[in-house]
């Protein structure tokens, strides 16, 4: 039998909207951790996206005892040996991530500017946990462009536009979190099949 409620270990409105849109065909209500009554903010001290996602999922699941998902994601830049990676959120002070990255990439030629947004989602319930991943390949641009999105979106180029120049629908179709959420959709559909 399909689950009816799922808690997402976040209060981020953008992440919640994306999860709700992708999982809505399953008839699952996606709650934020605040809506579910989980008041926790565990320290994300894992060495990988998977470890951090599990830390968050375990904390929220422990508080609410409902099926829980948590994600951790970041930008992995080829020329920086995968940095900022798991440290993407702490790479620079709030609002300065793109500027710092552009500065570090200043002398990197076009053919070495490849990068990927990577996301791992941890699904946790009474039966244990499952990890699902998604990736979006692109490159680092030379300037910030666009007003949609957040984080590194204004400098991450897919095709001829940055993520911040895409509509929410366009971004959901190609984003790393969207890809991981579609994997989650398939996993839930198979596990709880109709």
Secondary-structure element order, N to C: EHEHHEHEEEEHH
Under the CATH scheme, which architecture would be assigned?
Alpha-Beta Complex
Write down the domain tally.
1
What is the CATH topology assignment?
Answer: Maf protein
| Beta fraction | 15-25%
> Main sheet?
7 strands, mixed
Q: How big is the Rg?
A: 17 Å
What is the overall shape?
globular
CATH class category label:
Alpha Beta
Number of helices: 6
Tell me the number of strands. 7
What is the strand arrangement across the widest sheet?
Answer: 2-1-3-4-5-6-7
Helix content: 25-40%
Cα separation of the termini = 7 Å
Which parts are unreliable, with pLDDT below 50 for 5 consecutive residues or more?
Answer: none
Mean pLDDT score: 94
Summing up helix and strand content along with how strands pair, one would put the structural category as alpha/beta
Give a quick set of tags describing it.
alpha/beta; Maf protein; 7-stranded mixed sheet
Describe this entry's structure for a reader.
With 194 residues, the chain is of the alpha/beta class. It has a single domain, classed as Maf protein (Alpha-Beta Complex), CATH 3.90.950.10. Helix content is 32%, strand content 25%. It has helices at residues 13-23, 33-36, 49-64, 97-104, 168-174, 176-192, and strands at 5-8, 29-32, 68-77, 114-125, 128-140, 156-158, 161-162. The chain has a seven-stranded mixed beta sheet. β1, α1 (13-23) and β2 form a beta-alpha-beta unit. The chain is globular and about 55 Å long. The mean pLDDT is 94.
């Amino acid at each position: 039998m399909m689950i009816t409620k799922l808690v997402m270990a976040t209060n981020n409105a953008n992440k919640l909207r994306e999860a709700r849109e992708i999982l809505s065909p399953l008839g699952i209500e996606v709650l934020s951790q605040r809506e579910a009554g989980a008041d926790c903010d565990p320290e994300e001290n894992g060495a990988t996206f998977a470890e951090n996602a599990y830390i968050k999922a375990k904390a929220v699941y422990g508080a609410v005892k409902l099926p829980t998902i948590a994600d951790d994601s970041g930008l992995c830049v080829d020329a920086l040996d995968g940095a900022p990676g798991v440290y993407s959120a702490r790479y620079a002070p709030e609002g300065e991530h793109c500027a710092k990255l552009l500065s570090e990439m200043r002398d990197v030629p076009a053919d070495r500017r490849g990068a990927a947004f990577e996301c791992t989602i941890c699904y946790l319930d009474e039966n244990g946990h499952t990890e699902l991943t998604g990736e979006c390949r692109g490159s680092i641009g030379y300037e910030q462009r666009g007003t949609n999105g957040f984080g590194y979106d204004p400098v991450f180029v897919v095709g001829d536009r940055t993520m911040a120049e895409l509509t929410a629908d366009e971004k959901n179709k190609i984003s790393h979190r969207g890809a991981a959420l579609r994997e989650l959709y398939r996993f839930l559909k198979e596990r709880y099949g109709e």
